[in-house]
Every structure is written in structure tokens, then in C-alpha cells.
Amino acid sequence: MLKKPLIILLSALTLAACSSDKEAGKKPAKEEAAPVANEDVENVMKFQSPLTGEEMKEESTDRAVAVMVNNHPKARPQSGLSKADIVYEVLAEGDVTRFLAIFQSRQPDKVGPVRSARDYYIDLAKGYDSLYIAHGYSPDAKAMLESGEIDHLNGIRYDGTLFKRADFRKAPHNSYISFENIQKGANENGFSMENPPEPLRFASKDAAVDGKEAESVMISYFNNPLFDVVYEYNRDEGKYERYSNGEQTVDYETEDPVLLENILIAEAPHKIIDSAGRRDIDLESGGNAYLLQDGKLREVKWENTDGRILPYEDGKQVPLRKGATWINIIPDSPGLSGSVSYQQ
Predict the structure, then answer these.
(1) Which residues face 92 on adjacent strands?
(2) What pLDDT, in 10s, does the model give residues 214-242?
(3) Which residues on neighbouring strands pair with residue 244, listed in sequence order?
(4) Which one of 151, 272, 300, 329 is CB 3.0 to 4.6 Å from 90, fit for a cystine?
(5) Is pTM beyond 0.90 here?
(6) Where is the DUF3048 domain (predicted)?
(7) CA distance 336 to 130
(8) How many degrees, rounded to 5, is the angle at CA 306 between CA 46 and CA 40?
(9) Residue 105 contacts by C-beta under 8 Å, 6 or more apart in sequence?
(10) Burial class (CB in 10 A: 0-12, 13-18, 19+), 21
(11) pLDDT tens digit string along 330-341?
């Protein structure tokens, strides 16, 4: 798809520019909010989704729910991702990525396949005060969950009750949970579901977007095409479509596509910590990043702000476009990093 790349090294991330080819209870907001790089930012509206900025018919009072979603090829297509407000895509063991899908403005009937917890996914879920949903855990994640760091429901305890096994897939790629059962599990455990997350910052609709024209962007993990990610900008929709290994990311039941307004690709230090290949990922220190909005690619920095990975430029937070956001965390170390390429 991407032809004759000109490679430019930027930190540990490879950025290749190709020639044009069409075929190829918390209330908003904190008094001491971080400065924003674009002054043309709308104030938080009375009825606005806190995580997408989109207008809502009534005030949102729902707590965010963060679900670990399997991204193994045998788990595709997944259920529920098209209704997520925010999705983090992060490496687990080996060259396999998993998703942390955060739902607040919309609730799919069911989500899955659900996969096991890791400590850094828990940290990301805490950034939105989420109810955390997983099926299984690593030793470090288990210790965090058992210490009460975050409200959670886990398939290890609720397999066959709150979590259901699909008969069209084999374990560990067949665990699903419905939002009805998420609410049921929250009630049984006394978890409040009526505390919405603090809102993100959003640009006004007519605010200009800086950056290089980039109609198509590819992320490669370890040169493994099974986990290649391509974002194609659909100008008619004004949104990005997502593809894995050449297949569009859609919902298993409805076939609704994942459509995105914001994509943040963030470099972070990764380190293997045990014989199983589990990782320690530094999500605190910040680093280089790329922000995709309105068909343009912009070089920025990322910072961890109250547990949230957000784009910054010249020390000021860059506002998001109103809509859904996908965040790809990639290694920054030579020999370990994924690569990013784009075409105009």
C-alpha cells in the first residue's frame, strides 16, 4: 500500500513519508486546568459527553467502564469497539497488542472477547475512574486488583455467570460480558456507576488543524503483518477508518465500523521483566508522539495528566476534535520499536 518510503529517524520511531497515491460524582473542569495550545476551545457545554465532546440530549451521569479486549487474530472481529469513546492499544507479551476500551457515552449490548489484566492497563483505566473489566491477570495485576486499587469485575471469579463463553470461538478467545451483566456485577459489589469522568478538552468545530497531509498511516509492530494497523482518512465522513492485517475493524454483530476523530501514537519505554515476556511500560515520563486529526499528521509530545495520555505542544495541551479517540502506545527503544509510515 505504501510505496518508496523515505525514512527519517525521529527518536526511536521510524517515520516514512510516501508520495500521493489514492489507491494505496466529579464535575467539569478543574480550576487549575492545564494550558491549551489552541485558544479557540469551547467551554464545557451543559450536556456534552465528557470523553467525546459530542452533544447529548441529557446530562451524562454514567461512570466510565474500561474493558480489556482481545486482539489476537482468532478474536477478530471483536464486539463493542465501535461504541468505545477511547481505546488504548498496547503491547502485552510478545508482539501481540490488546485493547483497553473505555465506554461512557454509549453502551454496546456486549463486549469481547475479554482478556486478562496487566498492571499498566489498570493504571490507564484509573485515569478515568473506570470500573475495570478483565478475565484473568498477571501476578502484578492480580496484586493491584486484590489490594483494592480499582473497582473491578474479573472472569476468573464470574466465568459462566457474568461472563459468558461463546460457542463459535475457543478459549481464551471466547469470553464476553454484556453491559446488563456489568451493571448487575456492580450492584452486587456495591460499586457506584453514577460518577462520570472529568471531561477532556475539545477544540471548537471551526478550529484549524496543523500538520502534514496524511491520508493513510500505518503502524507496524515487529514487522508482524498480523498486527499491522492502518488508519485511512475518510474525507466524506471526516473520520478515520481502522484496519488490522488488511481487514477493516468492525463490530462482529452489527458490522458497524470503528470510526475515529483523533489518533495519538505515543512512544514509551518498554522493558521485558520476566521469562513469560511480560512488560514494564513507562507511562509516566512522557515522550514523542504523533497526533492525527482531520487527515493531518502532527508531531507533538505526550504527557501523563492525571493518569491520562494526552497530546502536548510547547508545554500546552492540544485539544481533541469532538469524537472518538484511539491511542497507540509503541516502544521507543531501537530494535524494539514499531514503525509508522504515512502517505499524502
Answers:
(1) none
(2) 999 999 887 788 999 999 999 999 999 99
(3) 229, 247
(4) 329
(5) no
(6) 51-192, 226-327
(7) 31
(8) 45
(9) 49, 50, 51, 52, 54, 56, 60, 85
(10) middle
(11) 988 644 445 576
Q: Where are the domains of the chain?
A: 1-344
Task: Kindly state the cell numbers that stand for 237.
Answer: 465522513
- Are 147 and 138 in contact by the 8 Å Cβ rule? The answer is no
| Cα 202 to Cα 204: distance, rounded to the nearest angstrom | 7
Over 50: is that where the pLDDT of 144 sits? Answer: yes
Return the DSSP state at 121: H
CA distances from 4 to 16, 233, 287 (A): 9, 20, 28
Residue 315 backbone phi and psi in degrees, to 5: 80, 5
Pair 282, 289: CB distance under 8 Å: no
CATH 3.30.460.40 fits 1-344, yes or no: no
**pLDDT of 46:** 67
Q: Which helix (H) or strand (E) holds 181?
A: helix 179-189
Residue 196: how many CA atoms within 13 Å on its side-chain side?
20
